[in-house]
């Protein structure tokens, strides 16, 4: 990365375009060193010097990327991470992950292109979409992405025809979704009784099935779901040996990891114990995983600007320039109470975070003209008295946020700028 920290205290401010954006006036390639690692100071400097137009923007903290990678390696030293691009395809973030040695899980041609364009080797990509359009399979064959997943016989036929050298992982349905926020088992994964016919179909097609993959579901809350899934994977290895397939050698644990609290550490313990229990004697086993949320969630902070205000009785209503059709689309699928930090640099420059100030019942609206574009209602959260052009800062906005944004109503929040900072991870 061009963005470096000299002593861990300084940050480098460097406006970068996210993948889809191109406002040329802000696309300057200069960097301005900052004297303070504090994120709010950094955000303030962006607001003052770069965001005169008050568009929403993201800050990517490369120091947090580094500490998450360290945490992954410390807890799962033998599990190779393939970052799941769909969670957040921000180009500077993908670069940072590549620089830290991550491999990548891609689900489409465009995701593979994004990763290969960074100079990542096609050997470091798993095409982990069990049902792929033919044109995307042909592209994978052309560029040498030679590992993919499948869970249907029709996929076997497509791969045989368009990418016969591709190695396969059979995707199985995890027996338990770990109470995840986004279970995937309804759509993907072979059922136990489907495994043998699928392996035989691959065998008949002369394709190499090298291992097993699963995904317990995104945002899983119970670590023991990994144990039952690893046990199920063991059975598939045995079935493959039983029908005379060459020895399987890859176990893909999928995603489902989170970085908040200690759930990740619990998952890592469960995984290590289960791999030892079920695969302890397996020589040459490669264990991989496809973490998305774990790496993306806490590395991004979103700054939004207050573009409207109305006072009704005791309730303050604010409009900000990002919402349900932008970075907060996940609120349609999952209840999360977002609690932004006020940053009242317009109305309260002497106390921008409004420390110690009175708060009011407040509603927060997104910018579109849909009545469901609401971030929170007055019954859910309180804010201090804010004024037009003050800012609201949302931490932990990296996973399934901007990646899901649309251009509905002409608000293209998916193309907000990303600024890079480097905090000193504590
Ligand atoms: C979405 C997805 C992931 C990432 O899941 P997280 O819960 O964000 O870690 C990994 N693998 C596959 C196949 C996926 O579909």
What attributes does this structure have?
ten-stranded mixed beta sheet, TIM Barrel, disordered N terminus, elongated, 2 domains, eight-stranded parallel beta sheet, 22% strand, ornithine decarboxylase activity, Lyase, Ornithine Decarboxylase, Chain A, domain 1, alpha/beta, binds pyridoxal-5'-phosphate, 426 residues
Description:
α7 (192-204) crosses α8 (224-242) and α8 (224-242) runs parallel beside α9 (263-279). β11, α9 (263-279) and β12 form a beta-alpha-beta unit. The two termini are 22 Å apart. The chain has helices at 39-49, 62-75, 91-99, 109-116, 134-143, 153-162, 192-204, 224-242, 263-279, 293-296; strands at 11-13, 15-16, 32-34, 57-61, 79-84, 103-106, 125-127, 147-150, 167-171, 208-213, 250-252, 286-289, 300-312, 315-320, 341-343, 359-365, 374-376, 382-384, 391-394, 417-421. It is elongated, with a radius of gyration of 23 Å. Helix content is 27%, strand content 22%. Strands 2, 4, 13, 14, 15, 16, 17, 18, 19 and 20 form a ten-stranded mixed sheet that branches. Mean pLDDT is 90; it is low at 1-37. By secondary structure, the chain is α/β, with parallel strands linked by helices. It contains ten helices and 20 strands. The longest helix is centred in the middle third of the chain and has 19 residues, at 224-242. Bound molecules: pyridoxal-5'-phosphate (PLP). Pyridoxal-5'-phosphate binds at residues 84, 86-87, 105, 128, 215, 218, 254-257, 290-294. Residues 1-33 are annotated as: Disordered.
């Amino acid at each position: 990365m061009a963005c470096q920290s000299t002593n861990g205290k300084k940050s480098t401010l460097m406006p970068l375009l996210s993948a889809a954006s191109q406002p040329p006036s802000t696309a300057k390639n200069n960097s301005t060193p900052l004297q303070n690692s504090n994120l709010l100071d950094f955000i303030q400097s962006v607001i003052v010097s770069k965001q005169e137009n008050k568009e929403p923007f993201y800050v990517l903290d490369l120091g947090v990327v580094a500490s998450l990678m360290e945490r992954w390696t410390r807890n799962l030293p033998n599990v190779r991470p393939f970052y799941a691009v769909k969670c957040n395809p921000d180009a500077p973030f993908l670069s940072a992950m590549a620089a830290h040695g991550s491999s990548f899980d891609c689900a489409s041609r465009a995701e593979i292109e994004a990763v290969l364009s960074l100079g990542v080797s096609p050997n470091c990509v798993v095409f982990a979409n069990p049902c792929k359009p033919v044109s995307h399979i042909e592209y994978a064959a052309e560029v040498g992405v030679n590992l993919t997943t499948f869970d249907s016989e029709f996929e076997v036929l497509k791969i045989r025809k368009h990418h016969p050298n591709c190695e396969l992982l059979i995707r199985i349905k995890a027996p338990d979704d770990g109470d995840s926020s986004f279970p995937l088992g309804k759509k993907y994964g072979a059922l136990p009784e489907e495994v043998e016919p699928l392996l035989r179909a691959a065998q008949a097609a002369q394709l190499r099935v090298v291992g097993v993959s699963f995904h317990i579901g995104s945002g899983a809350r119970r670590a023991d779901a990994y144990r039952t899934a690893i046990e199920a994977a063991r059975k598939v290895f045995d079935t493959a040996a039983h029908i005379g397939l060459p020895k399987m050698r890859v176990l893909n644990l999928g995603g489902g990891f989170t970085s908040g609290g200690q759930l990740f550490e619990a998952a890592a313990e469960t995984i290590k114990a289960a791999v030892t229990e079920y695969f302890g004697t397996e020589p040459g086993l490669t264990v991989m995983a496809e973490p998305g949320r774990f790496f993306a969630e806490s590395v991004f902070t979103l700054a939004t600007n207050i573009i409207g205000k109305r006072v009704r009785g005791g309730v303050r209503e604010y409009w900000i320039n990002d919402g349900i059709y932008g970075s907060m689309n996940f609120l349609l699928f999952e209840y999360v109470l977002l609690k932004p930090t006020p940053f009242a640099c317009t109305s309260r420059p002497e106390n921008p975070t409004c420390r110690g100030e009175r708060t009011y019942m407040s509603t927060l609206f997104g910018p579109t003209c849909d009545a469901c574009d609401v971030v929170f209602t007055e019954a859910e959260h309180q804010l201090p008295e804010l004024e037009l052009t003050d800012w609201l800062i949302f931490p932990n906005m990296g996973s399934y946020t901007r990646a899901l944004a649309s251009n509905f109503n002409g608000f293209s929040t998916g193309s907000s700028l990303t600024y890079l900072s480097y905090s000193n991870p504590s």
